[in-house]
Amino acid sequence: MSELHVYDASQGVAEGFTSTARDYDATVRHNIQGAWRLVMSLPPGDHRRILDVGCGTGWASMAMKERFPGITHITGADPAAGMLEVFREKAAELKDVELDLRTAGVMDMGVEAGAYDAVVSTMAMHWFPDKAGAAREMARALAPGGVLGVLCSGAGGEHEFRDVLRTLDPPPPLEWDAAFDFAQRDVDQMETYLVDAGLEPLDIWIEKRLRHSTPEAYMERMRVVASHVTPADIPADELEDLGARLDAAMRAASGPRGFTYTFCKLYAVARRPG
Questions:
Q1: What are the distances in angstroms from CA 115 to CA 21, 95, 111, 125, 266?
Q2: pLDDT band at 6 (very low <50, low <70, confident <90, very high)
Q3: Which of 72, 137, 189, 272 has the lowest tally of Cβ within 10 angstroms?
């Protein structure tokens, strides 16, 4: 898939996640569990200095500290100030750790080259506009022998919801469907990003799950993680009508166990040679 997209779903991401930061942890428990699985997949090592890219409310950093108690410094970078505010409130949980939180995206973190023993990025890379460039920036931050762990949206997920969107007449904003193409990546694409960034991939895999949700819970998750993809210029009455039609369509597509959909997470672990 080309890195050139008609629709850039990274626009407004900082404002969107700031507005939903207080609801994030309670809504995306599966993402938090995925971050734990990623951290447990990293090879053992004497990791002291950690960079958390797209750190959000800090759950990956918390997992890293529990897995690697010797961590003494964590730099967290996220463009959403609201997410960092929640992270700061958890700072006391990171015992004996120097915490440096920066309101910044992956391309403007301002971190020193080779300064970190490990870099993690959980459920953020799918919103990066230049994913290949992001891999290079994260690799640049690693010390020789350092490890990178990435968790992001995997190819093939949520097609059931995309099918529902296509039943709506009049149709929903094109951005709602296009955001999936912008975000989702497959194993071979991630491998290319890592290799081109000068890293040695250790393991790359997709975790595919079938989930069952009430329509309300599904749409709440979409609000929390993707509110920024809804065009701001849609009149309030049109947005309300759209929401009602989508709710009816989701209920029609639901079965005895609720709305059933596929969710795919892409995991990657790599090392900087040296």
A1: 29, 21, 8, 21, 26
A2: low
A3: 72
